[in-house]
Amino acid sequence: MAENDFKQHVHSSEDFYALLELESSATEAEIRRAYRQTARKYHPDKVGASNQAALEKFHLLQIAYGILSDDSLKELYDNGRRARQEQEARKSAFSDRRKAMVEELERRESNGRKRKVEEQQAEQRLEQLAADGKRRRLEMQDRLRREQLQADALYQQDQQRKEEQQMGTESQLDELDRGISVRYVKNDKTERWDKAFLETKFAKHGTIEGIILKEKRLKPPGAKHKQDYFVATILYKSIREAHAAILQFPEAQAMDEELKAVESVGWVVARKNDTTTTTKEDTGTAPIKSDESRKIPKFSFNPKLATK
């Protein structure tokens, strides 16, 4: 190629040193040797005329060698190459500074957003703590209120229970005051005595509101073994009627053969200075002395209770 052809490539941006794998300080001999070694790889006789990329590379190698082997052209190329490198360095430095500035700006913005998020989170935590505190206070107030209501309810229940117990005791005592106890030995005849039978025998003394009939084992005086007895508790409408039943029983027993099986008729609750009790002692038969006969039965009459 003519020198004028090489001049038009002096200001080419192509790095001819890199193309020949040389340093910019390479000598003429090093340039010539590198060209020969590289050109052989891309020579048309070796790669063929159809390998367009290899042909273009071979043509570019010729231009590189033509410029670098000519001192005047090499100087022009080196000056231009150096100027381009300095410009690239300035651009790179500017780019680095700009990149650093952008990164710093982004970092500050990120830190700013982070601080804002942290402030928002802190504010949310404070609001949550306040809400939790309020909720706990309300729960405590509600619990105390419910505990107070429960305590009041328990107090009312306790008072009501005491009142009911007092009323029940008074009612039971009143009923027991109107009750008489009838005791007789259990045998084939008396086993047939039911509440209806007893009511028939004792209703002549007054209105009967209820009868409780129980079977007990008692020990008669002088006996070694206990014996089966029936104990009937009869509740009259009034104390006067109950008193009449006890006082009039000996007369009724004398006139009624069946009632002779009865061994004792007396008060359910013993009265102080009141010895009104009819037993077979009055007819020559000693009464049974038993702790069972002195116990107050646990019962409650209801006027509506059936006596059968």
Q: Could you please describe the fold and organization of this structure?
A:
With 308 residues, this protein is an alpha+beta fold. Among the domains are: 3-69, Orthogonal Bundle (Helix Hairpins); 174-267, Alpha-Beta Plaits. It is 59% helix and 12% strand. The chain has nine helices and five strands, in the order H-H-H-H-H-H-E-H-E-E-H-E-E-H. It has helices spanning 3-7, 16-19, 28-42, 44-47, 52-68, 71-177, 195-202, 239-255, 291-294, and strands at residues 179-185, 208-218, 227-236, 262-267, 278-279. It has a five-stranded antiparallel sheet with strand order 2-3-1-4-5. A hairpin with an 8-residue loop joins strand 2 and strand 3 (227-236). The longest helix is centred in the middle third of the chain and has 107 residues, at 71-177. Residues 282-308 have low confidence and may be disordered. It is found in: Cytoplasm; Nucleus. Its main location: cytoplasm.
Give the arrangement of secondary structure elements.
Layout: H1 3-7, H2 16-19, H3 28-42, H4 44-47, H5 52-68, H6 71-177, E1 179-185, H7 195-202, E2 208-218, E3 227-236, H8 239-255, E4 262-267, E5 278-279, H9 291-294
Antiparallel strand pairs: 1-3, 1-4, 2-3, 4-5
Helix pairs in contact: 3-5
Offer a few descriptive terms.
308 residues; alpha+beta; Helix Hairpins; Alpha-Beta Plaits; five-stranded antiparallel β-sheet; 5 strands
